[in-house]
Amino acid sequence: PSPTPPPSPLTLGSCDTDPSQPVVNVPMYWRAIGAGGGVGPLTYTWSGTDISTRTTSQPSLPFTYTSLTPSNKLMTVSVTDGVTTKTANCNKTLSQAFVGTCPNKSVIMTSSGLSVPFSWAVSLVDNLPASAQCTYSWLPFGGEIPALTNPVLPPACSSNLSITSNAISYSATGTKMVNLKIHATVTTTLDDGTPVTTSTDTLIPCSANVIDPKGVER
Q1: Beta strand pairing status for 195-211 and 105-108?
Q2: Phi, psi (degrees; rounded to nearest 5) at 9
Q3: Interior CA angle at 26 toward 75 and 191, to 5°?
Q4: 204: Cβ–Cβ under 8 A, 6 or more apart, which residues?
Q5: pTM confidence score
Q6: Each residue of 182-218: pLDDT tens digit?
Q7: What's the CA angle centered on 91, arms 52 and 54, to 5 degrees?
Q8: Residue 202 in contact with residue 100, Cβ under 8 Å?
Q9: Of 178, 186, 192, whose CA–CA distance to 156 is shortest?
């Protein structure tokens, strides 16, 4: 009989996240890359930022980060066949679901007792999967509350989006503030085929300074 070939050496290349851009409050995986070989069943041990030591029989670890602090997430994965152990270290920057900008505005108060009409404007970039569904709403806070109409947009979140409010006026000088709230629903399919639906909210702050014609608040 032919001699039994020796087992191939245990290997482990690196580790990475799936998806490649993980998002806070959205399920994801850490995966061991290039793991294989060895003399017996492989066991994986994981530990890192926000993750206590965990052991799996598969080269993947499901996890959901709930905090952006710190945003750089570290991971160490070790694989062993009971005889030899290989270790890899990796890191990934966690993102929020949306990154948005809302430029500050200066608005003049007119002699009619109302400010010059203006609109809030927010530019958004999302880091969510294409299947994510979104709704948007304006949330004024502090002092005078204008009548803002919530945006009505297609349910699929857009990767690049500009949202402009209806035109509004204020009846008093001072700093005016609103948030654009984005409510996103994401369905993630786990490795075993189980769908998991999660929701996450992002607030984009906006502010404007209503001033009298001389540039001094009244």
Answers
A1: parallel
A2: -65, 145
A3: 75
A4: 98, 100, 101, 102, 122, 124, 179, 180, 182
A5: 0.81
A6: 999 999 998 999 999 999 999 999 999 999 876 554 4
A7: 20
A8: yes
A9: 186
